[in-house]
Amino acid sequence: MYQLIKPLLFQFAPENIHHIVTSMLKNGNLIPGVPFLQKSVFHLDDPRLEREVFGLKFKNPVGLGAGFDKNAALVDELSHFGFGFIEIGTVTPLPQPGNDQPRMFRLPMDEALINRMGFNNEGAEVAATRLKFLKRKGLMIGGNIGKNKITPNEDAVSDYIKAFDALFDVVDYFVVNVSSPNTPGLRALQEKGPLKEILNTLQQRNNKDGISRPILLKIAPDLTNEQLDDIIEIVTETRIAGVIATNTTISRDNLRSPENLKSETGGLSGKPLTKRSTEVIRYLSEKSNKAFPIIGVGGIHSAQDALDKLDAGASLVQIYTGFIYEGPILIKKINQAILKREMQKD
Question: Residue 136's pLDDT is what?
Fold first, then answer.
């Protein structure tokens, strides 16, 4: 069904159609019977799909990556597609409009997207208020946090603290985003010194009435092996819960799309990232001797792509661009493939 209407959807500018589709999704779920119909089509519930990772129990290992629902406005509606977890954000302490439009570009020849959104969001307090009244129904919620554009890097830790505090009571885990290429200077925070300061500060704050939240670090696919070694060291030293590998890439290698699209600045996601993100997962897993969990994301457009990331060492996977190109049935296909493996083990 989705593949039949995708050509029509792709006639619209990416950001415009995103707003149209999400509005239709929101309004459509107000119609009696629609949520039940969606669940009957897309859900695959089986205890063999359950995963316990960094102390949390996920009903299945397939999640939605950050960026699709920046403001926690669609968590309930998106859950009807069968996700095991949904990551909201990136959320900053203060609302901000993001970069000027156009800021998202579709590369259909490469089944990819380029975005330079710039952490456009309504702020941490708005997201927290929405999540406060959400009926979870076993769905795990991640909070992806970043700094405001106007905040200098030397003060970045204060922004991460503010977003962390605002979301603490309403999310199940946190993701520290220092790897987006679309906020000037942000990736400099991946360097050892500032990164350890941010993570150690959040860990020291990570206790409220005896409750702590798993903190994960989202890293770029453009890091060298030496930098990945530093990431392993930092994760070990700060004792955070794990890593999300990977964010979008600034590389434009081997793209088939026209030059005017390839030359757009921003982070590239989708199929061109499939191989590199899996390589990063494998390197981190093997070099650390599986010392921490990894959520694999980047170029998952098929069930086999997801299995490859799990085989490389990921405990969970997330989709985003593949969700746009393949449609919501991709979630069920991945879960079916994972369940088939589990059945073969029995």
Answer: 79
- C-beta separation of 216 from 244 below 8 A: yes
User: Catalytic: which of 180, 257, 277, 315?
Assistant: 180
pTM beyond cutoff 0.90:
yes
Residue 33 DSSP symbol: T
**Is 79 one of the catalytic residues?**
no
What CA–CA distance (Å, rounded) separates 338 from 62? 10
Write out the binding residues.
66-70, 90, 115-119, 144, 177, 182, 218, 246-248, 270, 299, 320-321
pLDDT tens across 255-282, in order? 999 999 999 999 999 999 999 999 999 9
Residue ranges of the annotated binding site for FMN are: 66-70, 90, 144, 177, 218, 246, 270, 299, 320-321
Eight-class DSSP state of 102: P
Q: State the residue range of the domain holding 18.
A: 2-345
Q: What is the CATH number of the domain that holds 29?
A: 3.20.20.70
Question: Considering its fold, how many domains does the chain have in total?
Answer: 1
Q: For 54-100, what is each residue's pLDDT tens digit? A: 999 999 999 999 999 999 999 999 999 999 999 999 999 999 999 99
| Both structure tokens of 91 | 């959320």
